[in-house]
TrEMBL record, chain A:
GO terms for molecular function: exonuclease activity; RNA binding. Its main location: nucleus. One of its GO terms (biological process) is poly(A)-dependent snoRNA 3'-end processing. Gene3D superfamilies: GHMP Kinase, N-terminal domain. It is found in: Nucleus. The gene is LOC108678120. PANTHER family: EXOSOME COMPLEX COMPONENT, EXOSOME COMPLEX COMPONENT RRP46. InterPro entries: ExoRNase_PH_dom1, ExoRNase_PH_dom2_sf, PNPase/RNase_PH_dom_sf, Ribosomal_Su5_D2-typ_SF, RNase_PH. The lineage of its organism: Eukaryota, Metazoa, Ecdysozoa, Arthropoda, Crustacea. Residues 6-122 form the Exoribonuclease phosphorolytic domain. The keyword Chloroplast does not apply. This is Exosome complex exonuclease RRP46 homolog. Belongs to the RNase PH family. Keywords: Exonuclease, Exosome, Hydrolase, Nuclease, Nucleus, rRNA processing. CDD domains: RNase_PH_RRP46.
Automatic annotation (TrEMBL), chain B:
PANTHER family: EXOSOME COMPLEX COMPONENT RRP40, PNAS-3 RELATED. Pfam families: KH_6, Rrp40_N, RRP40_S1. One of its GO terms (biological process) is TRAMP-dependent tRNA surveillance pathway. One of its GO terms (cellular component) is nuclear exosome (RNase complex). One of its GO terms (molecular function) is RNA binding. Gene3D superfamilies: 2.40.50.100, K Homology domain, type 1, Nucleic acid-binding proteins. The keyword Transmembrane helix does not apply. It comes from Hyalella azteca (Amphipod). It is found in: Cytoplasm; Nucleus, Nucleolus. Residues 159-205 form the K Homology domain. It comes from the Eukaryota. This is Ribosomal RNA-processing protein 40.
UniProtKB/TrEMBL annotation, chain C:
Belongs to the RNase PH family. Residues 34-168, 195-244 form the Exoribonuclease phosphorolytic domain. This is Ribosomal RNA-processing protein 43. GO terms for biological process: exonucleolytic trimming to generate mature 3'-end of 5.8S rRNA from tricistronic rRNA transcript (SSU-rRNA, 5.8S rRNA, LSU-rRNA); nuclear mRNA surveillance; nuclear polyadenylation-dependent rRNA catabolic process; rRNA catabolic process; TRAMP-dependent tRNA surveillance pathway; U1 snRNA 3'-end processing; U4 snRNA 3'-end processing; U5 snRNA 3'-end processing. Keywords: Cytoplasm, Exosome, Nucleus, RNA-binding, rRNA processing. Pfam families: RNase_PH, RNase_PH_C. The gene is LOC108682244. PANTHER family: EXOSOME COMPLEX COMPONENT RRP43, EXOSOME COMPLEX EXONUCLEASE RIBOSOMAL RNA PROCESSING PROTEIN. InterPro entries: ExoRNase_PH_dom1, ExoRNase_PH_dom2, ExoRNase_PH_dom2_sf, Exosome_comp_Rrp42_subfam, PNPase/RNase_PH_dom_sf, Ribosomal_Su5_D2-typ_SF.
Length: 227, 245, 291
C-alpha cells in the first residue's frame, strides 16, 4: 500500500474506547461509549442498539452524512456480538477532521470505528477493513489512491472486507466497469485488506506489549470460574 | 481469592482469531477446556471476541486479558457502587454497567424487616454480584452464603472514589501486587477495589488520598515496574503541592 | 390456518428456515425466481413524467416534476435531478411517520449517485439559459405497497419516468427576458443509458435469494444490488451489511459469489428491458390514438 496509515488508540479520556486514525490525507476521530443505557424507544429485547453519529468537519450534518451513518452502522453491526448486550446501546461517534474525497472518508471512518471498538473491548465476532480502490482510464488498478487519482479515474470503489474469510461485507461504487475489470479491482482490494488487518494486529501488539503484561509480570491469581 | 494458580501468557489476539478447534466434548475430564472472558465457542471452533492477551492457567482455563473501561457485570465479582435511587424495598446502585444493579434492604449483615438498613442516595456500597446475566438487571448483596458481611457493606464517609480501567482494577485486587505493597509501605491508607474499576481510598488526610489516586492512575498507561519507579516522584510532587496549598 | 400463522409469528426464523430447507420461500418461489414485473408509464397526468412499477406486491409510483431554477455557480450549464424516495407508514407498518428513515435516505442517495456518476442523463440538456435558467427535475418516488426489493423497483420506476418525461419548451422574450412555457411543443430528455438493478438477499454464505420480498428481507442479512447497463457492464454494485442478531457474519459473500450475482443479473437484463420497452410503446400508441 502506497499510502501511510497511523492510529493513536485511547485518544479520548472520557470515551470507553477511541481511535485517532489517519489514512493518507484523511483523518478521523472515532469514539465508542458503551454498552450503556440508551433511549428506551430504541431498545431491542434481543440485541444491543448501535447508534452511529457522523460529524462532518464543517457545517451541520446533512442527508449525506445520514447515509454514511447508515453504511457504517450496517457494516459494524455485521461484526458486533450484539446479542450479548440486550437492551443496551453502543454509541459510535465519528468526527471527520480532514478529508479530500468521500470514498477516502468512508474508508477511514470505518477503519477508525473498528479500531475504536477494539480499544473499547466491545465483543466482536470478527474484524472489518475498508479499502478504497480506483480503476484508471489506462486500465490500472490503484489501491488507496490520492484524491486527484480518484477524480481522474474511470471508476472508484470502496470495499469492506471481513478478516477471516476475506468475504465482502459491503461495496460501493462510482462509475461503470466491465465484469473483468471489476474482478481485477476486487482481487486487489482483498490483497490490500490483508495489509490493513496486519496494521490492526501490529497496533494491538504495540498496545498490549507496552503495558508489560505480555512477559507474564502481571500474573495475578484470577478467580474466574467458568462453571 | 482462591488458591493461586499459575497463569501463562500466550500471545496477542484480535477479535475473530481462531484459538483452537474444539469439536466435541472430550470424554476424559482431564482434557476439559474451560473458556473464560473474551472467548466464544461456535460451530466447533473457539474464537476470540476481544483484542488482548490470550492466557491459560494450569487447569486449562483459557481467557483473554484485555483493556476495557466499561464494566460488564459478572456473577460473584466484587464491585463498588453508588446508591442512586430508593425503590422502597430495594435500592438501585450504579456500578458502571449499562443497567444499575439492585440491592435488597435485607441483603446486609444483621438486617431484618425490623432492623432495616437505611441507605441514603450517594452512599457507596462494596458488594458482590449475586445475579449477573445479560437478560436481567444485576443484583448486589453485601452478605455471603452464611449471612456474614466479610468486609462488604456501605463504605464510611470521608473517603475518595475514583475510576480506573478494568485491567488496572484486576491487577490491584491481587494481595501480593508489588505496586500496592510498595504504596502501602510509603503511605498508610485503606483501599477498596471493585472489579468494575471503581477504587475507594481512605487515609488520614486529603493529601494522602490524592497521592494514592495519582499513584494508582499511573498504572493506566505503564507497567507495574515503570509505575514503581515513577510512584515516589508523583507522591512527592502531590504532597508538596498540597503542603503549599 | 391458525397454527401455521402463529408459528410464523412466534418463530419467524424457524418458519422461514423450514421453507429454505425445501429450496423454496414462504411465497412459493424458489431461490432464483423473481416476481413478475409490470410497468406503466404516464400514470400521473399532472406530472411531466411518471411511471408505476409493480414488482410482485411492491408498488412504486414515480412522478417527475420539472421546475425552472438557477444553475449552480460550479456548473452553470447543468441542470439538476433530485430523486427522493418516500416510505410512508401506509406502505408497511415497519416505517414510521416523520422525517425519512435510514432506508429512504440511503435509497435516495444511491439513486442520486447512480445518475450523477455514470452520465446517464445529459445534464447539459437540462440547461435553458446558461447561468440563468435550468430545469430541476424533482423525482418523487413514492412507495404505495412495500413488499421488499425497494432498490430494483425504485430504479426501474425512476428510469421509466425519466423516459416518459417531456419537458415544455421555454420561450424567452428577448426584450423583457420574461419566460413563457409552451405545453404544445415538448421535448424528450435524452437518456444515454438505462441502468437496471437486480437485488439478492443473503441468507447465508451458500443461499442467496433473488428479488427478496419483505418477509425474505426480514430473515436475511444484507442485500446485494447489481446495477448493470444494457451492455452488461457493471454500473454499480451496492452491498449493504445486515442488521441481524447473533449470526456470524450473515451477509458477507465471497468474491466468487459476486461473480455469480453479476451473471444472474446479466441473464435477467433482456427481460426487464423488454418489459420497459413494451410499456413505453403501449403509452406511445395510446397517445397517438387519443388526439
Amino acid at each position: 500500500m502506497s499510502i501511510e496509515q497511523s492510529v493513536q488508540l485511547n485518544f479520548l479520556s472520557r470515551a470507553d474506547g477511541s481511535a485517532y486514525y489517519c489514512l493518507g490525507n484523511t483523518s478521523v476521530v472515532a469514539s465508542v461509549t458503551g454498552p450503556t443505557s440508551g433511549r428506551v424507544s430504541a431498545r431491542h429485547h434481543n440485541k444491543c442498539n448501535l447508534e452511529v453519529q457522523f460529524c462532518p468537519c464543517n457545517g451541520q450534518p446533512t442527508i449525506e452524512e445520514r447515509d454514511v451513518e447508515c453504511i457504517i452502522g450496517e457494516c459494524i453491526e455485521e461484526i458486533l456480538a450484539s446479542h450479548l448486550h440486550p437492551r443496551a446501546t453502543i454509541l459510535l461517534n465519528i468526527q471527520e477532521l480532514q478529508s479530500e474525497h468521500e470514498h477516502q472518508l468512508l474508508t477511514a471512518s470505518l477503519n477508525g470505528a473498528v479500531m475504536a471498538l477494539m480499544d473499547a473491548g466491545v465483543q466482536m465476532q470478527g474484524l472489518l477493513a475498508a479499502v478504497t480502490c480506483c480503476y484508471t482510464h489506462a486500465g490500472v488498478v490503484i489501491v488507496e489512491p490520492t484524491a486527484l487519482e480518484l477524480q481522474e479515474s474511470k471508476s472508484s470503489l470502496v470495499f469492506v472486507l471481513e478478516s477471516d474469510t476475506a468475504n465482502v461485507v459491503a461495496c460501493y461504487q462510482q462509475g461503470r466497469l466491465s465484469v473483468a475489470e471489476y474482478t481485477a479491482v476486487l482481487n486487489r482490494a482483498i490483497e490490500a485488506a490483508k495489509e490493513v488487518f496486519q496494521f490492526y494486529r501490529s497496533e494491538m501488539l504495540k498496545r498490549y506489549s507496552s503495558h508489560g503484561c505480555i512477559d507474564g509480570q502481571n500474573e495475578a491469581d484470577y478467580d474466574y470460574d467458568p462453571l | 481469592m482462591g488458591e493461586s494458580r499459575h497463569v501463562s501468557s500466550m500471545k496477542v489476539v484480535l477479535p475473530g482469531d481462531l484459538i483452537m478447534e474444539l469439536p466435541v466434548k472430550p470424554v476424559d475430564t482431564s482434557e476439559n477446556v474451560f473458556l473464560g472472558p473474551g472467548l466464544r465457542w461456535k460451530d466447533g471452533v473457539v474464537r476470540a471476541t476481544r483484542p488482548g492477551i490470550l492466557k491459560k492457567d494450569s487447569r486449562n482455563l483459557y481467557f483473554i486479558e484485555s483493556h476495557q473501561k466499561r464494566y460488564i457485570p459478572q456473577k460473584r465479582e466484587f464491585v463498588v457502587g453508588t446508591v442512586i435511587k430508593n425503590k422502597g424495598n430495594s435500592y438501585l446502585v450504579d456500578i458502571g454497567s449499562h443497567e444499575p444493579a439492585t440491592i435488597s434492604f435485607l441483603a446486609f449483615e444483621n438486617a431484618s424487616k425490623k432492623t432495616r438498613k437505611d441507605l441514603r442516595l450517594g452512599d457507596l456500597i462494596y458488594g458482590q454480584l449475586l445475579v449477573a446475566n445479560k437478560d436481567m438487571e444485576p443484583e448486589l448483596v453485601c452478605i455471603d452464603f452464611y449471612n456474614r458481611a466479610v468486609g462488604m457493606g456501605t463504605l464510611p464517609d470521608g473517603g475518595l472514589l475514583f475510576k480506573v480501567p478494568l485491567h488496572v482494577a484486576r491487577s490491584l485486587v491481587n494481595p501480593s501486587n508489588p505496586f500496592l505493597l510498595e504504596l502501602g509501605a510509603r503511605l498508610s491508607f485503606s483501599i477498596v477495589v471493585g472489579f468494575n474499576g471503581r477504587v475507594w481510598v481512605k487515609a488520614k488526610n486529603m493529601a494522602d488520598m490524592t497521592s494514592v489516586m495519582h499513584a494508582v492512575s499511573l498504572l493506566e498507561c505503564m507497567s507495574t515496574e515503570e509505575a514503581l519507579i515513577k510512584m515516589h516522584s508523583v507522591i512527592d510532587s502531590v504532597l508538596s503541592q498540597c503542603a503549599v496549598d | 390456518m391458525a397454527p401455521l400463522n402463529s408459528w410464523e409469528v412466534i418463530e419467524p426464523a424457524n418458519y422461514f428456515k423450514s421453507f429454505v430447507d425445501q429450496s423454496s420461500r414462504p411465497d412459493g418461489r424458489d431461490w432464483n425466481t423473481a416476481r413478475p414485473i409490470s410497468v406503466r408509464v404516464g400514470s400521473i397526468g399532472t406530472a411531466e413524467g411518471s411511471a408505476t412499477v409493480r414488482l410482485g406486491n411492491t408498488t412504486i409510483v414515480c412522478g417527475v416534476k420539472a421546475e425552472l431554477c438557477r444553475p449552480s455557480l460550479e456548473h452553470p450549464t447543468r441542470g439538476f435531478v433530485v430523486p427522493n424516495v418516500e416510505l410512508y407508514p401506509c406502505c408497511s407498518s415497519t416505517f414510521k411517520a416523520g422525517p425519512p428513515g435510514e432506508k429512504a435516505i440511503s435509497t435516495s442517495q444511491f439513486l442520486q449517485r447512480l445518475l450523477q456518476n455514470n452520465e446517464i442523463i445529459d445534464y447539459e440538456q437540462l440547461c435553458v439559459v446558461p447561468n440563468k435558467w435550468a430545469w430541476c427535475l424533482y423525482c418523487d418516488i413514492l412507495c404505495l405497497d412495500y413488499d421488499g426489493n425497494l432498490i430494483d423497483s425504485s430504479l426501474l420506476s425512476l428510469v421509466a419516468a425519466l423516459l416518459h418525461l417531456s419537458l415544455p419548451t421555454v420561450n424567452i422574450d428577448p426584450d423583457t427576458e420574461a419566460l413563457s412555457l409552451s405545453q404544445k411543443h415538448t421535448q424528450k430528455l435524452t437518456i444515454k443509458e438505462r441502468p437496471m438493478s437486480t437485488t439478492f438477499a443473503v441468507y447465508n454464505s451458500d443461499i442467496q435469494l433473488l428479488d427478496p420480498s419483505a418477509a425474505d428481507e426480514a430473515e436475511c442479512g444484507g442485500e446485494v444490488s447489481v446495477v448493470l447497463m444494457e451492455s452488461g457492464d457493471v454500473c454499480s454494485i451496492r452491498k449493504t451489511g445486515g442488521r441481524q442478531v447473533g449470526v456470524l457474519l450473515p451477509s458477507a459473500v465471497s468474491s466468487g459469489k459476486v461473480q455469480g450475482f453479476i451473471s444472474t443479473a446479466q441473464s435477467r437484463l433482456s427481460g426487464i428491458h423488454e418489459t420497459l420497452k413494451e410499456a413505453l410503446e403501449l403509452h406511445a400508441s395510446a397517445n397517438r390514438k387519443e388526439p
